[in-house]
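Q: Focus on the shape:
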Amino acid sequence: MADLQDEPHSGGIGAEDLPAPAVAVGALDRAVALLAVHPVADGCNTLVRTLHQSPYHDIETSDTGVDTDIPRLRAGGVGAQFWSLLVPSAREGEDAPCDQVLSDTLDQIDTALTLLRSYPDSLCLALGAGDLADARNRGRIASFLGPVPGRTLTGSLGALRAFHALGVRILAPAGASWARDELTAFGHEVVREANRLAILLDLTGCAPAVARRLAGASKAPVIISNTGAASLNPHPGNVTDEVLAALREANGLAMVTFDTARTGDSLHAVADHLDHVRAIAGPHGVGLGATFGTGPGHPRPTGLTDPSGYPRLIAELLERGWPESEVAQLTWGNAARVLRDAEFTSRAAGHRR
């Protein structure tokens, strides 16, 4: 695990501009040691969109213009990253033409692939669970492309197959006509084809009833790549307990964000959301999806303003009594399991065909 040990952890943990919450030294040492073996598989980072808008950032050095770079990913013990390819119109529900959304998404994919080619010693494209472990063993950060917006699929599955050929492994149905108010007949076709291709369905932003239908229709586990617990904060981007229970039944995964509006303004508040999601979705159903990748001005919880704060969060969970085995599931094991299960479902679908 050279990628987690080459960089000194001192100076990289927590926010540099805000007082970080006090954490017991012993717990912090345990957190760093645990992340060296079970690094973070982060479910959501929007750096690709930021770089598409401002392509001159060098992420090999810390840059105050953006909260994500390789030194801070390494200091935080990040071993895998899902790079969001959602364009603003797809994320914010605007009625942009579908052909424009498709064009913008292809531009994002191109930016993501350029990013990976630019930093081959630190980042590598990951297409499945095997690549996840291989990247970790080679000291690289496994990079999964997606989600892409489901709105790009308008009556044909060709775009989904094309995305798969380009390396995309996650699809977000939110905002798509086939998953807006209900799961349509075409929506069921999308789910079946995504299962066949081992493309994960990311239910972030879906209405609760549709999210439950998607979780039930998919034979592979589904994910929510960035969310909080609606029971603790009724933000429209947070997930209800009913959806969390559906994820538990479907062996899915809810990944908690570090967004002040959704999860509060402190590391302790984020830990409260993790406690709640773990209680409802189960230890096998909770993950981390920070939604880093933005520039200055995006509110972040104190102590979690960039990826280097992960060890402090893990130390907080250990102090709260989380068993190390369940922390390892949270950081790495649950994401790896979902990817493995999706590939198993894909192989089974291939045999059936």
